[in-house]
User: Fold this.
Amino acid sequence: MKNEKTTLQINENIEALLCYAVLWISGIVFLIFEKKSQIVRFHAMQSILVFLPLSILTFIFQAIPIIGTIIGDIILPLLTFVLWIFLMVMAYKGEKYKIPFVGHLAEVLLKNNK
Assistant:
């Protein structure tokens, strides 16, 4: 990443980090508004594909007594937090880190969306 300015006139690495800032919500925002930077669009799509399913799963598991409470209140939020920090750091460093399967799917979806 060359720290070029994006459509929104923000450095690419900052904008890529911001794709993860509010989990899948910021991913949607940057996917809609960023037209120039493919790396930012990748991070936005990956944010949506990682954090939206995790949010849905957390919500579903929280409704299940006992084991669901452990998974929905402890395990999934911890996994979400670790991924959130990790992906923001990697994006800020300018690395196009791909989560297995999800990263490839993000690239395919972006390529088909051109």
Notes: Residues 35 and 63 are 39 Å apart (CA to CA). The helical segments are 12-21, 23-33, 38-62, 67-92, 102-112. The longest helix spans residues 67-92. DSSP finds five helices and no strands in the chain.
